[in-house]
Amino acid sequence: MSSIEFLEQNSCAFSVLACIFLTFSYVASLYVWKTKLSRDHPSTIKRRFFSVSCMMLLAPFFTQYFFTEDTTRLGDVYDHLGLRTSGLISASILPLLLTAVLFLGPLTMQFLSGIWKLYAEPVYWVSSWQDWVWVRNHFMAPLSEEWVFRACMMPLLLQCLDPLTAVFTGPLLFGVAHFHHMFEQLKAGFEFKTALMISTFQFMYTSLFGAYSAYLFVRTRHFMAPLVAHMFCNHMGFPNFGEIGQFPPLQRITIIFNFLLGFVLWCYLLTPITSPDIYDNRLYSET
């Protein structure tokens, strides 16, 4: 029996193992550099940029190696990775607007507080791009995570799982990958219990977002769709519900109403706005 035949017969097991390997490889690429500096130090960030970039270059070749004949018959590697020109404009705009609807409450808070005015200031953007932490959080982290955990992993999971199962399986690995922050929190002086609680919450939050991001990828089959959503979510951060109490009573009611309205609208629009036909997704199958 040839190695190709062996892979074909055990494609599901190898696909899952390949995803696990990609997860640990991604995290390992962050720790190949021995340093006592914090994760936010410019030197640490630059080194991690380099090692993660190397990981990103190797990941698609690794993914392609585990493609089955059925997968390659459906489309070329670029199609499966979500690198397509057809539907690109829709994939760049609609998922971003859909995600903004979900954040209608926090956006309302920014509008009422006047924070939104910063976005019209060129100085804000110039200074932001000079801040390595900002660049990591807003650009490199979303780019590398969506490339590895969505573009490279989801095609493997879709080889042996139905789309819905794959959407909720892949994000678990995405959530686990964020547990490495616990070691950095312990290094920074946090108590074990505190670090564990923070990491557990982050696991839950990133897993939920990962499911949403994976859903966008499966429905649109565009790398750009989850990428713009991830960038926007990283910019907004997890909603700080405690800040609502700092607003006047009438504004509090408006904010709470928009939180609820945004969630309801997001649920209502999720399926139609991610319709595969809009993005010319010929790989999508509900089964």
How would you describe this protein?
The chain has 287 residues and is an all-alpha fold. It has helices at residues 3-9, 11-30, 42-65, 69-74, 77-81, 88-102, 104-113, 122-129, 132-152, 154-157, 163-177, 181-187, 192-220, 224-236, 249-273. Helix 6 (88-102) runs antiparallel to helix 15. The longest helix is centred in the C-terminal third of the chain and has 29 residues, at 192-220.
Q: Assign a percent range to the helix content.
A: over 70%
Query: Unreliable segments (pLDDT under 50, ≥5 consecutive)?
Result: none
What coarse outline follows from CA principal-axis ratios?
globular
**In percent terms, what proportion of residues is strand?**
under 5%
Distance between the termini: 30 Å
Number of strands: 0
Give the SSE string: HHHHHHHHHHHHHHH
Rg, Å, rounded: 20 Å
Which sheet architecture does the biggest sheet show?
A: none
Indicate the topology.
Elements: H1 3-9, H2 11-30, H3 42-65, H4 69-74, H5 77-81, H6 88-102, H7 104-113, H8 122-129, H9 132-152, H10 154-157, H11 163-177, H12 181-187, H13 192-220, H14 224-236, H15 249-273
Helix pairs in contact: 2-3, 2-11, 3-9, 6-14, 6-15, 7-15, 9-14, 11-13, 12-13, 13-14
